[in-house]
Specification:
472 residues; alpha+beta; two-stranded antiparallel sheet; elongated
């Protein structure tokens, strides 16, 4: 036991040391992650504790008429001496009694016209589509509709029963298609002045409480249906706009022409409708028009990507130059202390880097490339001042600009304190190197935070969604 305790203490001590060595920015982000998880956990707890289902310790509320079953998970105490026992309970939705259902059916029937008929119309004068809903969620009632054309017997000109029956059957065949089950009317082609009479048959149904004498079936689903409600309706021709009228005439003309030329090799389309010239052209897929736009978007994306890649490359180059700056200054101090001039020191450093590169010990870096360029400029007898200034402009970083300034000051004024100034610069360079390395490490850690946050989000979803679903 003592050995285990020491092992735990040792691990905790190592963990604390690792945390202390972690950059402050990373530690701050770690704290934010933990704080966010605690807040989410608190919200989930408050949500689960605030939306209790159990009432008075033993009552479970039902959903409204026509609602869904509810599944509740409870813990039951008192069944055994052990801990509470988990129990899953199914709560059925509330139901009407037969008398309540009949009363609800009658209420719906009395207001059915305002529910299904368009504004400004009535069942006695229908021009536009009805809204024949199949369910009223608030009442928990299902509706079933059917349309039956009925010939007005008073307007019939025949006297015999057989002729009236035949006329009624023909009337049904002619107008049975006039209304779909969802209330859509096909009255565009009705002649002006026509009034089609008929009735809408409405049957309503809902689940009701089983009667007592049904014994063991009292908890089974019992569907109760109303008697059919007959609603007289009159359908009149729809008032068409000029466009709708021309389109209907064109469709009828094409249908007539098609039926009348079935034996011919081609179908001749109408060239004039109601004095209006008609022309045709094939419908072509216009998706090709989007291709140039997609090409432009792709070109812009490539251009922006190139700019981003260039900026990233410049940033990477600047970071490498900053990391190598302290090494350059330290080598200059060594060679200048050995009696070399600035030019000879730079050439020696460049040759040393090239030798390491050829042997595969060192990879090529931006600083080596810049020193190589300087050596080539020395060999071409370009003035040293111009070479140093050109080097500073190409690198364009504050530490290198300061170094070039020190070198130029030494050349112009013959300062003998160059080495001491370079030693001070080396101290600053090493501090800058540590700062740069720390910043690069923090940036790398920040990039790793995205997958960590994604994993945290997934875990939160896995934990919270089932809890919310159970509460709902």
């Amino acid at each position: 036991m003592e050995k285990l305790k020491k092992g735990i203490e040792k691990r905790l001590k190592g963990l604390r040391q690792k945390l202390r060595s972690t950059p402050p920015k990373i530690r701050k982000e770690m704290r934010l992650c933990i704080l966010a998880s605690l807040l989410l956990s608190l919200l989930a707890f408050l949500s689960s504790s605030g939306s209790t289902v159990l009432q008075d310790g033993f009552r479970l509320p039902r959903s409204h008429y026509g609602g869904q079953k509810q599944y509740v998970s409870l813990e039951v105490s008192g069944l055994s001496k052990d801990d509470a026992v988990p129990l899953d309970i199914t709560v059925s939705p509330k139901r009407y009694t037969k008398e309540e259902a009949n009363a609800v059916f009658q209420e719906i029937y009395e207001k059915i016209e305002e529910l299904v008929v368009p504004e400004g119309e009535s069942f006695a004068n229908l021009q536009h589509d009805l809204t024949l809903m199949t369910k009223l969620p608030d009442e928990g009632v299902q509706l079933s509709w059917d349309f039956y054309p009925e010939l007005d017997q008073e307007s019939s000109t025949t006297d015999s029963e057989e002729e009236r029956r035949t006329a009624a059957q023909e009337y049904v065949r002619s107008y049975r298609h006039l209304m779909d089950s969802d209330g859509t009317l096909h009255n565009e082609a009705l002649p002006a002045g026509t009034v089609v009479t008929g009735c809408l048959s409405l049957i309503m149904s809902t689940d009701i409480v089983p009667e007592e004498d049904e014994g063991t079936t009292r908890y089974l689903k019992t569907q109760y249906h109303s008697s059919p409600y007959r609603i007289p309706v009159n359908i009149v021709p729809r008032t068409l706009s000029r466009y709708e009228s021309l389109l209907l005439q064109l469709q009828n003309a094409i249908t007539s022409q098609d039926e009348g030329s079935l034996g011919e090799n081609t179908l001749s389309l109408p060239t004039e409708i109601d004095g209006q010239p008609i022309s045709y052209r094939e419908h072509r897929d216009r998706s090709y028009l989007w291709l140039p736009l997609l090409g432009v978007i792709a070109a812009m994306a490539i251009y922006m990507r190139q700019g981003q890649l260039k900026r990233e490359e410049q940033k990477k180059r600047a970071n490498l130059l900053l990391l190598d700056y302290s090494e350059l200054v330290s080598k200059l101090i060594v060679y200048i202390g050995a009696g070399l001039t600035i030019r000879n020191a730079l050439e020696t450093i460049s040759r040393h880097f090239d030798a390491l590169l050829e042997r595969g010990i060192q990879e090529d870096r931006p600083l080596y490339q810049e020193l190589r360029t300087m050596v080539l400029q020395f060999q071409r007898n370009i003035p040293e001042s111009e070479i140093y200034l050109s080097f500073g402009r190409r690198v364009n970083l504050k530490p290198y600009t300061k170094l070039v300034s020190l070198i130029e000051q030494n050349r112009q004024n013959g300062s003998k304190n160059l080495r001491s100034m370079l030693e001070l610069e080396m101290e600053d360079a090493f501090e800058e190197r540590k700062t740069t390395a720390r910043r690069l490490g923090e940036e790398a850690g920040t990039k790793l935070l995205l997958p960590l946050f994604l994993m945290l989000g997934i875990v939160m979803v896995i934990v919270i969604v089932p809890a919310m679903s159970a509460l709902g």
